[in-house]
Design brief:
The complex is a heterodimer of chains A (433) and B (323). Chain A has 433 residues and is an alpha/beta fold. Helices cover 48% and strands 14% of the residues of chain A. Chain A is built from 22 helices and 13 strands. In chain A, the strands form 3 sheets. In chain A, strands 7, 8, 9, 10, 11 and 13 form a 6-stranded mixed sheet that branches. A 5-stranded mixed sheet of chain A has the order 2-1-3-12-6, with helices on one face. In chain A, a hairpin with a 2-residue loop joins strand 4 and strand 5. In chain A, helix 10 packs across helix 11 and helix 21 packs antiparallel against helix 22. The radius of gyration of chain A is 24 Å and the shape is globular. In chain B, a hairpin with a 7-residue loop joins strand 1 (68-69) and strand 2. By secondary structure, chain B is mainly alpha-helical. In chain B, strands 1-2 form a two-stranded antiparallel ribbon. Chain B has helices at residues 3-16, 23-27, 45-65, 82-89, 91-122, 129-136, 138-141, 144-154, 161-164, 166-169, 178-206, 210-218, 223-234, 236-251, 255-260, 272-282, 286-311; strands spanning 68-69, 77-78. Classes of the chains: A alpha/beta (433), B mainly alpha (323).
Amino acid sequence: MKQRARFSRTVVVGGAALALVLSLSGCGGGSDAADGDTIHVLVYGDAANKVEKELVATFNKTSEVKAVLDTIPGADYQAKLQTIINSKQAPDVFFNWGGGSIKPFVDAGLLLPLDPFIAEDPGLKEKFLPSVFNSAVVDGTSYGIPMRGTQPVLLFNNGKVLEKAGVEPPQTWDDLLAAVEALKADGVTPIALGGGDRWPTLMWFEYLYDRIAGPELFQKALDGDKDAWASPDSRKALGKIRELVDAGAFGTNYDSVKFTDQGSPTLLATGRAGFELMGSWAYSTQQDAHPEFARSDLGYSAFPSVEGGKGDRANLVGNTNNFYSVLKKTKHPQAVAEFLKLMYSDQFVKAQLSIGNLPTTTNTEGLLDTAASPEFAKFQYDMVKEAPAFQLSWDQAYPRSAATAMYQSLQQFFNGSMDEDAFIQAMQALPTS
Amino acid sequence: MNRTPAIPKRSKGPEGSEGFEDRATVRWGGPGAVAVGRPGFLWAAPAALFFGLFAIVPLIMVAVLSFASWDGLSDPEFAGLANWKKLLDDPVMIKSLWLSVLLTVLGVAVQTPLSILLGVWAAGHQRNRAVLSAIYFVPMLLSIAAVSVLWRALLDPNLGVPAQATWLFGDGNLFGMQASAIGVLVFVSTWQFTPLHTLIYQGAARAVPPVLYQAAQIDGAGKVRQFFHITLPQLRNAIITSMILMVVGGLTTFDTVLILTQGGPGSDTTISAFYMYQKAFKSFDYGSASAIALLLVLVSTLISLIVVRLSGYDKMRSTMEGL
């Protein structure tokens, strides 16, 4: 009896609280008290915020509607964005990676199509490199304006180590295998890999699939054609990965090494490894941690070609760019359009270049001399400009719900605990939309 | 309902009971000590409200969500048993439950003997004991995240300890194999949490009446014999308390896995709490994540019930009995 009395009271109190919570959440997302004439710009919180602050200040000098910059620390960005985007706290404009990263928001009807903005100011489209601009086009409609910079993946090397082993940056797959043998004989790990982070491992898959099968195979798979993963080209790419791992190219303890805690960059910088396949940000990472090495011995080249492969050697993979997308419920679309125009201004390009980013606007080329490292900026810019295809990182192209399973299978195939068939099956099981 | 008669009956106690003046009864909180009456439900209302709001309501919501599919964007859709069916067919889920239990059992097995020995030692009167135990308790002051980051860096195969001690660590691929990755997780949580349990045992060991040891000494029992026949039995309730803490802590381990292994290699250290996080905040599949959460609640409840029942903790027997 006593037990039951206590229980029924708890239920009453709990029920009242529940009703309270439900009624509160019921009015969320609805009418919003007018919070002045401001637009909120939400960005990934890191060192590049310096430039974004500058731009917001510039915008506020002339605009009636004031912009407010909100930042979320990097690691939490995606999760926090997804939590607030359909709530009262949703921003007007937000940072993203284009492609799959905004598709769920488009599907949920939250994003504003930007085509009307572009019709009014063609510069919003024409002032950006087309291969980059197009990766924020979803179902034929533009949903993002490029911001920050492009991040192609390059094969970095330690010039001193290569020289000592008599190795040149590889042009072909066979060159790469020969380089691996030579470096091993010289007693260094041929290729540094931060397998503990998993996404560095993904880069090897992206490039080998591109070189062997061309960019079409991945696009087909992404569009829902599961057979693409079981195709002969797919098996051939997996075979090459196996070949490289088995040749000892990455040593044996790559799964315990991370890029994010300076593990693999230090291997390269201290001459304990010859190569590292990494996004262009590796340059500024080295500049920061090992300035001497970045100045004198850090080399870079495009990913080698594979004999008989269908992919062009000039194809790139990586993060094509970051984008600003706009929420449909913004109350100041005109102000937002004005704000977005800053993304191709000279001021924006110069500011980005000065912190090592490489914007992909058509006026970038003329301003490359102002970059932190003009030579590296120029190399990258030419690559991006001439690339026939620029494949967005798989983990960004696929819907977020695929990421965990994708990382697991990548790691397991790479370290040999999963075979080809199991890997193909795992990739086929990923959700594509 | 029948509480109303219960209160006056209790408060009548002192007048009615004989020998109430007995000092011992008062000291041990016998019936005489509660002459002011027992607290009613209203006294607990503020706490109950908060508990309801922040524990019961979310639990109910999680239970509801586990029957829905929700990506955090659109409105949740009723999905029936789909999430549960998916979970039971999911090899990673089954593995994660097994891993959670394994990590918990390993944690208890490693930490309990260690902290009993250290706790009993720290309860003594040796020279330098205070200084040594003060140093020893330092890990307890650090946050789990900081400790994990620290060990992750120390265990880097090329730049950390393994590179200096290749005879012990081989190529240092600690995070690349399941057995060693689990080993690292157990080691790091032992390093961090043994001090806490040591503290519990230190307190309990100091509460053991010295007369027992004096009597044993007179009977000629040695140190080892005293430990097994006096100290250990007297620590019984402390052991249960500490073990329940370990079990609860073990089943909800999350931070160490997130920072040290990220559930890898593959899914080899993906314990349930981490899998739930992955489902919710990496895959944005809140339905499945809620089902995992609920499953974890059920398993934890079951395990702590078993611990309580097996240990006889529910009977609240005192070790002071017979004194």
